[in-house]
Amino acid sequence: MENFRLSSARKELLSFVTAMGRGLTTASATPPHNYDPERPLQYLTPALASLHGSLSCMADTWMDGNHPDGIPPDLKAKARFGNPAFRTWHARLVRRSYGIVKCCLDCHRLNCEGTSAQDELSVLAECSKKGYRAASSEAPHELSTGSSNSNEEETIEELRAYLHDAFGHPIRIDYGTGHESSFVVFLLALCKIGCFAWSKSKSAPTPSPPTISRASLSLFHAYLNVTRGLQRDYMLEPAGSHGVWGLDDYHCIPFFVGACQMVAREQWQQHQLKEQRQSAMRSVDQTKLEKDESDGDATPMNPYLPDKALPDPKTPSMPLSNYNDNLEHWDPSIIHNRNILEMHRNTYLYLSCIHFIQQIKPNVPFFESSPMLNDISSLGNWNKVSSGLLRLYEGEVLDKLPVVQHFVFGKIFSANWSPSRKGPLEAPQWTFINGPMGDECIAPWAYGNNGSNESPQGGENIHGRTNSNVSSLGPMPPTRAPWAK
Description:
Layout: H1 2-5, H2 8-22, H3 46-60, H4 85-111, H5 120-136, H6 150-164, E1 174-175, H7 177-192, H8 209-233, E2 237-238, H9 253-295, H10 338-344, H11 349-360, H12 366-369, H13 371-376, H14 382-398, H15 401-404, H16 467-470
Parallel strand pairs: 1-2
């Protein structure tokens, strides 16, 4: 654990998560959402558009009982958590992950160069359709133009491993922040091989934080559509021990990215108000100048009477039609306003997370179902919220062995230390319940001479003694409390 805490892999992962959120706050001259639910591919690249299409297919068809390709939950299962149909769902993910990843890489290779700005949206739409088809079929997708070389196959296998761990554990049938982090590692690996840029050149510059944040915002909306369906339909058990005392039962990163989006919204609001005031002041100066030139020696205006014709520089213009948001001031307590949640959950990631909690726990007071989020809502501004959530992710996820021990390392997301052992630990061959010969294993002193407690002929106990070795010990003496009669 100490090796990982000091490693470059942890530093890369934390820096990437930070860029996913803080990149939204570095460009105050652009709208804060950078995600239009009507145009989710707007800030993606061909590879990421293909991934977005695959996630959309997984959310639309893989869990729909009315779809021919759907895997509905097993209604006969009586467990409170963990519907066994999830194992079938995850097995499909393993089978189809090769086509999903291969389609991403092929879209990146075939469409990243020679594309004009006018054709970008059409290319993204086509790549999204190809990704959708790759996730809907177990056959090789149509983009493959030949056999892959060994380096590409190694890249695909590493990316598949991260994708397999991103949607829950098929044996435990649970989901938590470790699986969420595996999806972030998957995005980090795509970023490191150049899939966040419209160029396949190895010398291409590293994507800027705004580029990473805008793409991640769109992809996380699609990813959450899948994981929420899994949590709702298959009742995945929350991994770990935090439960409702965490942010919610499953996630952490969407809350951080969503809080940064709210910070960007405040910055955009301040920028808009400043522009409106400057425009109003320029309008006032221009009006006075024109009036002075036209009136000449006319009687000046009475300075004690208000001029209703002039705009008030402190009055902001009402709704921006492009984004359906009048940019009213929202502090963290806005999460208790159900009308705001319903109206803007498709645009703002933080509100979407809160809305989902209230949707799956409709009859539970919010301060009981999510006490930490309820406490966070009393903070004064979104900057404090985002900073605290990043520290929470670093301390409660990246610094916890139960999470880090499940990370998969390869050539892209690599470990720069020598492992303490090679390969997984072997499962024990026998225990106190099952001996090495398949017989019941009895304590050495429990064998008696009457044959009732003797081990089978030729059998051995856990110390390697046969019944002939211990028959001279005699029967086990009865035990009584000192006060028993």
